[in-house]
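Batch job 17 of 40 flagged for manual review because the log was empty.
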Amino acid sequence: MTEQPYPADPPELRRSLSVLDGVAVAASSTAATTSIGIGLGVTAGVVGLHLPAIMLLAFLPVLGIAGAYSRLNRVEPNAGNGYVWVGRSLNPWLGFTVGWVNIVATVAFLAYTTAVTGSAMLQLAGEAGLHRVGSLALDPGSTAQTTAVGIVVLVAVTLTAVTGIRTAARLQTGLLVFEYVVLLGFCGYGIVAGPHPFSLSWFDPFAIPSASALAQGLLLSVFCYWGFEAAFSVNEEVRDPRDASRAGLITLVTMLGLFLLGSVAFQRVLSERELAGHGAEGLAFFGDRLAAQPWAALPLVALMFSAVASLQAGVIPTARGMFAMSRDRTLGPVWSRVSTRYGTPAAGTLLIGALATAVAALALVIPRLADMIMATVNAVGIVVAVSYALTALAAAARFRSLLREDWRQGVRAVVLPALSALALLGLGGYLGWSFYTSADHFEVSADNGWFLLTTPLAMIASGFVAAAWAKYVRRSPYFRTGEGTDADAPQLLTTPN
């Protein structure tokens, strides 16, 4: 068999990022404004007026996952992160699956965010008085129109990402500052001036309507936190790999504060019906309830900036993850080609943008934007839970000797990640079972349980097919060496910050 033209020693990515740059990439990937503006409404449709409770509850396992990422990153910083760590500590097939589902989940996320970006732009056009282009009536709820507009933005941010993370991080920092100023201002005012009385029951998870609502709400909330690990995907480009750990944890805690602020503010200003009924237009409706134009348009501008930043932030870590997989010959050589001009995986970045564009076009089979968002978020929530859980189990396996050497470190490094992993796997399994039993036929619809279950299962199953190709056709050495040794890992945990 002819060998693929893989570079014998792929060039390294340039180390130029600071902690602040890592926070900008991770925060943009997490997209707090998008999660608040859209995710809160989707989640409220499941858990009702208990958004603060579900956001707090979901934070606990995600915090355990973040601790696992941080410790693993200290002993083995790698752009592939979970793909490398799970492959070495558990099994190469599982490691490849983690890398693969992160790729397909991010591509699905990019397709969904492309439509969200287009929707925000069409809403802004409507606020400016532009309701028609020729004979076409502009509709921010149309998947076709929003996707067409969003694809133009996706192409632009992909080209920006090619020029380097430093450039992208600077752009994202500027967008984030504007977003957070608007969020803090409007949410703070909403908490003070909202017409609906504050209630402690909002923080009571036991008041959530059912166990299936709790499980689905938790995974939807995990999806909202998803993206903090983008800081670990650029850990080969930061000046000190430990900065990636700091950036990831700073981002996660910041997201918790913003989500709690946003959920309380939304419930003070909007009724449960208003929260659940406005979908992609939730933040614009929130702004209209609090201020007159043109000030009411500011939250919508913030949503648009957040969506643009998260498109770019989604492209960046995915290209880095595929770069790491290509170095191991589990993916083709094109993904590990580094631009001599920009020091980035430019070809892979362009291909990610092209794949996301293709998937965004496929999403047109779901004509209503709100339905497409619900279907995507549910599917991605399940596969992200699986990826997080396997990474946490890899940390528990790698550092298990700490339970004998130092029980305090052992609890943090082994027990908490393991409990977080079991919680997420249990939630995903229970939600999958509830989807399976909720329908008796398959239909491409956001309220069809078999469709909601089949989509994440297809994402995961495709990973095993791709892994088989990598092992038996590409003959990747990853499947021989992925398990590795971890005897020296515990000693490195004590490296000073």
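Reviewer: the log was empty due to a logging misconfiguration, but the result itself is present. The chain has a mean pLDDT of 79. Unflagging and moving on to job 18.
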